[in-house]
C-alpha cells in the first residue's frame, strides 16, 4: 500500500496520541491537524514532535464554546433524544462540550489554555483560523484519511462533520472512535450521501467499540448462534481527572441515576465531588455503547444481547480490572461454550484506542481504494459471521 496521508481533527488526548502513535506505524504520514483555534497543514508531513512539544499543557479549549466553532458553522441542536438529529438549529453556549476537540480521552476542559496562543497556534507550524475544519476540507484532495477526535456529548456533531466533507465531494476515509449507539443511526442516515461522495466511513474504531468489537466478531466464529456478548473494561487514567475532563464527563452519563443531560449540566465542582464520593473509582453497568449496534449490524447477535460495563480509576496508573470480551454461543454440534479474549493489563488506554484506530484507518483506505464506500463498523471489517 502506498503511503497514507492523514489528518487529525481535534488535538486533545485522542488526537495527540494518534499523532504520536502514527510515528511508530509504517506507511502513515500526518499532514494536517486542527483544534478550535488553529490549523497546521504540511503535505510533506508535519513535524509531529514539535507540534506535540509546543502544545503540551497548552490545549485550545474553553467551557463557553460550542464544538461548531471548529467548523465555523452555526451551533445546532445536538439530537440527544436519540430519535432524530434533524431538529431545527438552536443556539448552544454550554459547558457540555467540555473543551471541544480537546475534550476526548485526555483533553482539557477549560483549564489548559493560554490566551491567544492556545493549542496548535502555539506551534511554529500552526496558523490561527476561525474555520479549522473548513481549512482542512479545502486541502482534502491531498488527504487520504481523516481521523475525527471530536467530542461525543454533542452527538450529532461527528455525523454533521462527515456530511460537510461529503458536501465538499471528499473522496477518502473518515474514522471516528465514538462511543454511543445512537450515533450509528445518524451516520446511516447519511450513508447515501457519503457513498455518492466516495467516502469510506469507519465508525467506532477505538478500543470499545472498535478493538473489542473486532475481538467479539472473531470469537463468534466458533459458534453457529451467539447467545451473549459481555464486554468488561478497566481503565486507569495516568494523568488523572484534570487532564481527562471530557471523557470522564461523558462516562458519567452512563452511571446509574445519571444520563446525558445531567452529565452535560454538572459543574466541575459537582463532578469532582462525585469522584471523591467514589474514591476516584467509577463503575459502570449496561452502558449505551455502540458495540451493541455494531455487532448487530454485522449479523453476530441482537443488540440486546450485548452488555458493556467497566471500571474507571481516575487516580491510579494501574487498571482497576482486566479488560475482557466473553462470547457465549452454540457450536455446530450442539455444544454451548464461551470464548474469552483478554487484554494485557500493561496495555494503556492510549495504546488500545489509538493503535486500533490507526489500524482501522489503514483497513478503511484499502477498502476505499477498492471502491467500497459507505458506513462500516469495526466488525464489518472482520471475518463475516
Automatic annotation (TrEMBL):
Q: Provide the GO MF annotations for this entry.
A: NAD binding; NADP binding; transaminase activity
Query: Binding positions for NAD(+)?
Result: 10-14, 246-247
Q: At what positions is Allysine found?
A: 179
Q: Can you state which reaction this protein catalyses? A: N(6)-[(2S,3R)-2-amino-8-carboxyoctan-3-yl]-L-lysyl-[protein] + CO2 + NADP(+) + H2O = (7R,8S)-8-amino-7-(carboxyamino)nonanoate + (S)-2-amino-6-oxohexanoyl-[protein] + NADPH + 3 H(+); (8S)-8-amino-7-oxononanoate + L-lysyl-[protein] + CO2 = (7R,8S)-8-amino-7-(carboxyamino)nonanoate + (S)-2-amino-6-oxohexanoyl-[protein] + 2 H(+); (8S)-8-amino-7-oxononanoate + L-lysyl-[protein] + NADH + H(+) = N(6)-[(2S,3R)-2-amino-8-carboxyoctan-3-yl]-L-lysyl-[protein] + NAD(+) + H2O; (8S)-8-amino-7-oxononanoate + L-lysyl-[protein] + NADPH + H(+) = N(6)-[(2S,3R)-2-amino-8-carboxyoctan-3-yl]-L-lysyl-[protein] + NADP(+) + H2O
Region (Disordered) location: 56-114
Superkingdom of this entry's organism? Archaea
Residues spanning the signal sequence:
none
Q: In which pathway does it act?
A: Cofactor biosynthesis; biotin biosynthesis
Query: Gene3D superfamilies, per this entry?
Result: NAD(P)-binding Rossmann-like Domain
Q: Mind listing the UniProt keywords for this protein, alphabetically?
A: Aminotransferase, Biotin biosynthesis, NAD, NADP, Nucleotide-binding, Transferase
Polar residues bias: start-end ranges = 56-69
Q: What quaternary arrangement does the UniProt entry report?
A: Monomer.
- Misc. remarks from the entry: In cannonical biotin synthesis a pimeloyl-conjugate is transformed into biotin by the subsequent action of BioF, BioA, BioD and BioB. This enzyme replaces BioA and performs the first half-reaction of BioD.
Family of the protein in this entry: Belongs to the BioU family.
Please explain the role this protein plays, according to its UniProt record. Answer: A 'suicide' enzyme that participates in biotin synthesis. Catalyzes the formation of (S)-8-amino-7-oxononanoate (DAN-carbamic acid) from (7R,8S)-8-amino-7-(carboxyamino)nonanoate (DAN), a function equivalent to the cannonical BioA reaction and the first half-reaction of BioD. The cellular requirement for biotin is thought be low enough that this single turnover enzyme supplies a sufficient amount of the cofactor.
Protein's name in the database: (S)-8-amino-7-oxononanoate synthase BioU
Specify the species.
Haloarcula mannanilytica
